[in-house]
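User: Design a sequence. Structure:
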């Protein structure tokens, strides 16, 4: 199977159970350096920094660059029939699409959803380590999202520019809502909207909410 530098770093991160921030700290590089590598934005990454990343990931630099070389332990790529798919963790938290649902911090359950690696890399341009699967509940985002829909959340996308649908703590609970930044607001203010016209929009200061991530995909049973 042909893989890219982005694939190899991403898969090794997942195999070792490390986050971008963990590896950046171990390697002594800025997180932005690793962030760009994982999103395919860095076509010619600094070789000295990449060498330190390889050490943090316990692999040869040559393996990172070509896919051939020594790695500590087993390869992060499976050789079976499912080699073109990657596991994304399911999180036991249900963002409300109503008035908000108070929940504890999301907990990974060990139940994985599988997506094509090429789709995540080429279409979403996302790192698998930043993705989580959740279910949503409520009716405030009808007709876009329905109660019980499965969503794919990108934890790296925490800015509502451009506007989109996000999961956030709005001060009352965990909700799934459409967010947009109000231009020229001082202090910065976020407008929180429901697609269902029965629910009124409301506003919060940017420092009053915590954006968990942007919803990149959804699916539902029929």
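Assistant: Done.
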């Amino acid at each position: 199977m042909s893989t890219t530098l982005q694939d190899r770093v991403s898969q090794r991160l997942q195999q070792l159970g490390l986050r971008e921030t963990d590896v950046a700290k171990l390697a002594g590089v800025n997180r932005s350096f690793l962030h760009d590598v994982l999103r395919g934005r860095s076509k010619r990454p600094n070789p000295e920094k990449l060498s330190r990343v390889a050490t943090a990931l316990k692999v040869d630099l040559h393996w990172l660059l070509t896919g051939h070389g020594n790695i500590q332990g087993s390869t992060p790529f499976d050789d079976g029939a499912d080699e073109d798919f990657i596991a994304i963790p399911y999180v036991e938290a249900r963002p409300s699409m109503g008035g908000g649902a108070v929940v504890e911090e999301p907990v990974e359950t060990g139940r994985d959803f599988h997506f094509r690696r090429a789709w995540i890399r080429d279409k979403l341009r996302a790192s698998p380590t930043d993705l989580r699967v959740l279910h949503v509940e409520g009716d405030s985002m009808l007709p876009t999202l329905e109660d019980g829909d499965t969503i794919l959340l990108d934890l790296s996308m925490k800015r509502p520019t451009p506007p989109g649908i996000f999961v956030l703590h709005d001060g009352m609970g965990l909700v799934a809502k459409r967010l947009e930044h109000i231009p020229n607001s001082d202090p910065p203010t976020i407008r929180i909207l429901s697609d269902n016209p029965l629910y009124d929009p409301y506003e919060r200061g940017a420092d009053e909410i915590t954006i968990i991530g942007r919803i990149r995909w959804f699916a539902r049973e029929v």
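The first strand starts at residue 85 and ends at 91. Confidence is low (pLDDT under 50) at residues 100-105.
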